[in-house]
Amino acid sequence: MKNTLLYILIFISYALSSSVDVRIINTIQESGYNVLIDGELVLEELKSSESKPKPISVRNESIISILNNTELVYEGKLSFKSKAVYDIYISKSVDVDHGYEISLSSVALLPNVNLAANKPKSVSSELDFNVIETSPVTSRSGKYVPNDETRGILEVNQVANVQIIHNSPYPVVDIYVDESEALGDIPYRATTALIELPTTTVVGIAPANDTVIARFPFTLETDANYVVTASGIIGNSQTPFNLFASSLEVVAVDSNHFALKVFHGATDAPAVDIYANGNMLVENLGYSEYAGYVQVPVGDYTIDVTASGSNVSVASFAAPLTNLGGGTGIVFASGFLSPSANDSTFSLILTTPSGYSVELPSTPTALLTVAENSRIQPKVFALNQNYPNPFNPTTSISFDVFELSNISLNIYDLNGRLIKNLMSGNLSQGTYSIDWNGKNANGASVAGGVYLYSITSNNSTVVKKMSLIK
Question: Which of 82, 280, 329, 418 has the most Cβ atoms closer than 10 angstroms to its Cβ?
Answer without folding.
Answer: 329
